[in-house]
Amino acid sequence: MRRGWFLPLFATLGFGFLYAPIVSLIVFSFNESRLVTVWGGFSTRWYGELISDGQLLEAAWVSLKIATISASLAVVIGTLAAFVLTRFARFRGKLLLTGMVTAPLVMPEVIIGLSLLLLFVAMEGMLGWPAGRGMTTVIIAHSTFCAAYVAVIAQSRLRDMDESLEEAARDLGAGPVRVFFDITLPVIAPALVSGWLLAFTLSLDDLVIASFVSGPGASTLPMVIFSKVRLGVSPDVNALATIIIGIVALAVTVAGILLMRQTRRAR
Q: Residue 185 in contact with residue 75, Cβ under 8 Å?
């Protein structure tokens, strides 16, 4: 009997702890008062303030561009690294490559950001590129650590893949490149989409690494929000967070519906 009520109660408390702050944020985004903890009546005032806040909108646009490019580059790099590690049994430097792929997963972001900053400074001194810190350096940094997550996801899918499909294609005369694009890539495509979404989220959410490698004109949305929060939570930040939550919830809902339809068709 105790077990019957304990698990639902524990689950309710756990989900309440996770989602109660989000619900509170959404509610207070419609608050008339400038004080985010004092309810002053229902209003959409801060959504209008958000639309006229050029700094936040510019930071959001910069973050979206960086996240899209970084996620795409991370998928390419991570997929190639995963393919090499799973399809080539032995080669010189495999242990080093494995360590390089997994290192960003366990290394503190402060260390990654500082090391990349020192690298960019040294490269600018020797090669003259990249000239200063900006979107280019942020994209390189985000692609570097996001590729590790994509590689892990792609590796797991490649290991579970039936290699007889690739062998059959080679027996029919297809070359390695055609086998990869016609057989391997379509099979692992769902894993690559998952990796791209994860890399996009990590890039969009990153604050620590971007703070080290960004410069004037490349302030990301987390950096701008953090600078605002340090001076006090502004209600228009609540409005922006509510919009982001709504977009994410819509995307998850659409993905769930498509997955359910695909499962029904498969059955």
A: no
